Amino acid sequence: MSEKSQIPDNNNNNAASSSSGKKPAGEIGSGSSYSGQRMTYPNRAETVNPDQATLREQWKFAIRQYSKWYSHAWGTAILAGGVFFGLGWIIKGSNPLPSLQSSSKSPPKPDEEK
Q: How far is residue 101's CA from residue 12's CA, in Å, rounded to a whole number?
């Protein structure tokens, strides 16, 4: 019981300080101009670094996720390019790229006079 008597009673200290009407300056909601709720962080920072095995596992997972997203992005871009090319072909009625026109439709070349 002697240990308990050495621990200060926080309830008595808070009651005395709350009667003066002052809030601690460190709180976000302590300012009178701020009317929002107090902000809490659900995922606090870890106090110690994880072991190497955990870091390695997390790094491998992150690489796999990035690779998957990267390949999906390229696949989507290629698919969209093909779709737009096909749509251009349907709208125009022929090849939408002028550089790939057949040589039969190219303008006649001027005759060279000798």
A: 89
Distance CA 91, CA 70 (A): 31
**Cα gap 65→59, rounded to integer Å:** 10
| Tokens linked to 73 | 């992005």
Chain centre distance of CA 70: 14
Residue-wise pLDDT for 28-65, tens only, equals 555 556 667 777 888 888 888 889 999 999 999 999 99
Could you tell me which of 2, 20, 18 has the C-alpha nearest to residue 10? 18
- Does the predicted model carry a pTM greater than 0.70? no
Nearest by Cα to 46 from 38, 58, 35? 58
Q: What is the token pair recorded at 21?
A: 């009407």
Q: Which residue has the tokens 């008595």?
A: 12
Residue with the two structure tokens 């002052």: 22
Note whether 30 and 24 are within 8 A (CB): yes
Q: Name the nearest CA neighbour of 96 among 105, 87, 107, 108.
A: 87
